[in-house]
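Crash report, auto-generated. Payload:
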Amino acid sequence: MNKVAIVGHSTTKFRKLAEKSIYELACEPSMDILRSSRIPADKIEGLLFSSCSHDLYGGAIASEMLGVNPKITCRIDNLCNSGTAAITTAYSYISSGLCNSVLVVGAELHNSPGSKLIWDVSRGNFTSPIYWASVFAKMHMRKYGTAEEDMANIAVKNRSSAADNPNAMFNKPIALEDVLNSRKLVDPIKLLDCSALCSGAASVLLVSEDLARNLDVQPIWIDGIGQQTNCASIAHAIPGIFEKGASKLAALYAYKMARLEPSDIQVAEIHDAFTIMEIMAYEDLGFARAGKGASYALDGSITVNPRGGILGSGHPIGATGIAQVCEIVCQLRHEAGIRQAGSSNVGLVHNLAAAGTSATVMILRSE
Amino acid sequence: MNKVAIVGHSTTKFRKLAEKSIYELACEPSMDILRSSRIPADKIEGLLFSSCSHDLYGGAIASEMLGVNPKITCRIDNLCNSGTAAITTAYSYISSGLCNSVLVVGAELHNSPGSKLIWDVSRGNFTSPIYWASVFAKMHMRKYGTAEEDMANIAVKNRSSAADNPNAMFNKPIALEDVLNSRKLVDPIKLLDCSALCSGAASVLLVSEDLARNLDVQPIWIDGIGQQTNCASIAHAIPGIFEKGASKLAALYAYKMARLEPSDIQVAEIHDAFTIMEIMAYEDLGFARAGKGASYALDGSITVNPRGGILGSGHPIGATGIAQVCEIVCQLRHEAGIRQAGSSNVGLVHNLAAAGTSATVMILRSE
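Recovered output after restart:
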């Protein structure tokens, strides 16, 4: 398997309204990478567009707007983990030898059709993701004694981190009482337990080892990729969610491929679309034992969601997984400024979709 | 680069109305492959869904409906070459070592949103593909003296072949006069110069060399993949379409990867969404010299579009490229019955999108 490196990363400011088209938005971070990387636009051999919008042919359209003429283009949709699905695909194009360089761009507008899970008849009219978050939270509270305060702690932590991230949607810290007193939407989930859909775009540039060695930038290597799709509907997702959920399996595959253990991870971006999801992820990723996710949030050794996570940064669906990877690349290059998490050289990204029915875990490493 | 084989193929009957959901349609050929292949459903490690519908999360949904639990899933859209984009992606997942087996399924309903090219402001209100086909036909006629009869010949040939394909939408041969007397839609394109959007699904199963060697089925190897995206809009596609179009570049890359020449090809599926496109493709693929595509249709040595092509089979957008690959696999296994094209062992698939702005060429080989 040929090695693959990330040599460029950029995100837009995440905000409620973009006031531009999804493609103009997609061009922002992509142009930033093309300007700053040492690779001329005509050497970009692949372009993947990650989005849940209804716009078709996005790979070719973004290519034309960016002035690149790639061999391979297409649009990737896998709901909330579209972004890491696209990066996985770019990885495989390079590792298999089909391409030497792939630009991956994710973009979404705040009113994306990806915000409703309408295909799943087992949900009835409960198409909003908050309903599955509510079920999972109740299950975790019942089984492990997790409290509403434990979930609120996650929101406080991530909003606090977001205050150090100029591209985050939310830049003001909040207090525990703010979360606990925020409007209860679906018991036990309150407004500030939820991430907010928003407009935003993020891009990364992946290249082959040969190309990476010839560039004057610090490469960040993709050492492990784990993915798992267990099902698509919540009725199938609920049983065994704590024991054999897609995140847990994806993590196992990623650690195995990278030949690393959870204890080797120093910094992580975790899919905190709802506060309970970060608590569950600590356990799924092996950072904490089963039922101990809530306390891990207070005394864990790994820096989690330094950019503010999805709770603090906002959730532009098709861009989210790519923005997570951007942050870990930034951290491993020690370019994160006031939010730099020590001298980390191994990081993890966890991205999931639709009640955790599918998940991606990636492990990145600097040299 | 690890070798990748196709070990299963199936298509539905293509028809105007499916009278079922896109996912039920997708399950038809996929279940056929799962039933007939020697690979248990729980060994399918990837599932790619190719479609231009607005339905999101199709990879996971199709997985759940089929009872498979793949590692990797996503939906791929690249308009009319979504199907071969998905097969290329499956190839790279296997060749890179991320998966050992990937089921690729394409499905579309006749009223797909992929039938309009609405993003391209350079088209004005001319969003239907027939407008670019008209421009290309006029250009070819002016430059090379191609006649309306030459285009009509292609329709006659492919409708005749479709009569031998029980899964084709059109099963009755037509005469040259039928085409020439059919309603002129956009000069010089007449009704019978056009393929018809329809409902349909097609699936292929790709596996690693190790897995292929352990199955009791004849593997068909993917020896060459060439892809090129030149642009997305017709204003950029027109200049140089005969000299450096995406199809021509994709063919060069595919021949180079397979270490073959056009003269090595024995059977081909060519993207004949309009009759002029098959004439242009003969030239782009190196089967005929520039301007000689029309005469190649009459006396060429390669069997082209034995299933009836898109003109005879119908055009279920996201399934088309996969159905083309199914036919070549069938031909190379010598399983095509009355439409078998001799004892071919090298075949080619040519699939393009949106005024030829992007194209895929694949070269397949039996042992």
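Post-recovery validation: Residues 4-112+197-213 of chain A form a domain with the Peroxisomal Thiolase; Chain A, domain 1 fold (CATH 3.40.47.10).
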